[in-house]
Amino acid sequence: MLVAVSTPRAFDPVIVSRILTDAANGHEDVLKKPAPSVFFKKIGDAQLDFELVCFVADVDLIGRVTSDLHFIVFREIVAKQPALDPPRLKVEGLGGVEGALGGIAESIARAPSGGTPAPSAEVKP
After folding, report:
1. pTM
2. Do the domain assignments include residue 28?
3. Which residues of the chain have pLDDT under 50?
4. Rg of the Cα atoms in the chain
5. Is 71 domain-assigned?
6. Is there a domain that residue 119 lies in?
7. CA-to-CA distance for 66 and 72, rounded, in angstroms?
């Protein structure tokens, strides 16, 4: 049977291999001979792809064992996931907008309590 797993690229592939191997070796329905094998299949832009190959004694067990292994592997990967920096957004080139918003805020602050802003003497294109 084959269990395909992708992880974020920040993951250490040695740790992922150990997680997969331990999951297979710890499952009572996975045969010890031939031993489970992990293949590091791909280094992608955002992820790493792995395949766990292992065997069960009865073809009727494949669906349940595959599901069991996915649950085990997912739990372990989440527990060992490296901390990621929060995404940051940097916007550049808004100097003109920033200046205009500042002027609008000043006009509103100087407005009489009637609600209509006083006309500004300074107008910038």
Report:
1. 0.65
2. yes
3. none
4. 29
5. yes
6. no
7. 10
Report the number of distinct structural domains present in the chain: 1
CATH number, domain at 59? 3.30.70.100
Residue 39 has a CB neighbour count (10 Å cut-off) of 14
Answer positive or negative: Cα dihedral of 11, 72, 74, 59: positive
Strands 37-43 and 2-8: unpaired
Say if residue 89 is exposed, middle or buried (CB neighbours under 10 Å; 0-12, 13-18, 19+): exposed
- Give buried/exposed letters for 58-70 (b at 16+ CB in 10 A, else e): eeeeeeebbebbe
Q: What is the pLDDT of residue 81?
A: 81
Q: What is the pLDDT of residue 102?
A: 75
> What single-letter amino acid sits at 37?
S
Nearest to 52 by CA among 26, 78, 81: 26
pLDDT score recorded for residue 113: 63
Full residue range of the structural domain in which residue 23 is found: 2-80
Query: Does some domain include residue 86?
Result: no
Residues 6+ apart with CB under 8 A from 7: 16, 47, 48, 50, 77
Structure tokens at 64: 């349940």
